[in-house]
């Protein structure tokens, strides 16, 4: 029969198990949150690239409008739009609109890269939290086991009925006990 004193070591072990389960549960919840956050960041990165492409196309379209207005103005002034300074002005406008479009795409790519980097960092932090929680859980279990062993030993030596039939030596060295195992 288990005496009331035998409950203390069991409670110590139970406390350690609960601590371990709690550590792992918190780490799993943090990992799930991190995974969702990483998903949001990756979605934001994709949307940034898409928006950059749209804005880049808008810059090219706007450049074409400027060139069209220039050609109309030169044509209205009876200037040949396909030669001389009129042509160079149009080429310059085309070059500037292409550079604007490239810069817009580049900036969008950089911003998206930042979001993707944040997503990876969030996931890495969650992995580290899970590792830390696992180590904490092992520590809780070891501490609980050591505490239970200590309680069991101190209760047994205090004459509380937990001394395993009054044995002062290990039971495995007791031939009668070993035969009955």
Unreliable residue runs? 159-167
Classify the helix fraction into a percent range: over 70%
* Proportion of beta-strand residues: under 5%
Assembly state (oligomeric): single chain
Q: Tell me the major beta sheet.
A: none
Question: How many strand segments?
Answer: 0
- SS content category: mainly alpha
N-end to C-end Cα span: 18 Å
Number of helices: 3
Tell me, briefly, the overall form.
Answer: rod-shaped
Q: What is the overall pLDDT average?
A: 83
The run of helices and strands is HHH
Radius of gyration: 38 Å
Protein name: Phage protein
Keywords: Signal
Organism: Pseudomonas lutea
Signal peptide: 1-20
What's the arrangement of secondary structure elements?
Elements: H1 7-76, H2 84-157, H3 175-179
Helix pairs in contact: 1-2
Notes on the protein architecture:
This protein is mainly α and 181 residues long. Helix content is 82%, strand content 0%. It contains three helices and no strands. The radius of gyration is 38 Å and the shape is rod-shaped. Residues 159-167 have low confidence and may be disordered.
């Amino acid at each position: 029969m288990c005496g009331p004193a035998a409950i203390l070591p069991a409670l110590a072990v139970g406390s350690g198990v609960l601590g371990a389960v709690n550590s792992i549960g918190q780490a799993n919840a943090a990992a799930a949150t991190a995974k969702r956050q990483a998903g949001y960041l990756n979605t934001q990165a994709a949307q940034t690239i898409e928006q950059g492409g749209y804005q880049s196309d808008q810059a090219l379209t706007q450049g074409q409008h400027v060139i069209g207005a220039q050609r109309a103005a030169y044509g209205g002034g009876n200037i040949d739009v396909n030669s001389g300074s009129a042509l160079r002005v149009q080429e310059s406008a085309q070059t500037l609109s292409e550079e604007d479009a490239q810069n817009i795409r580049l900036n969008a790519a950089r911003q998206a890269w930042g979001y993707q980097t944040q997503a990876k960092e969030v996931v890495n932090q969650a992995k580290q939290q899970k590792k830390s929680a696992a180590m904490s859980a092992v520590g809780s279990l070891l501490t609980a086991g050591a505490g239970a062993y200590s309680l069991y030993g101190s209760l047994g030596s205090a004459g509380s009925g937990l001394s395993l039939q009054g044995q002062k030596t290990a039971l495995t060295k007791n031939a009668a006990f070993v035969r009955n195992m």
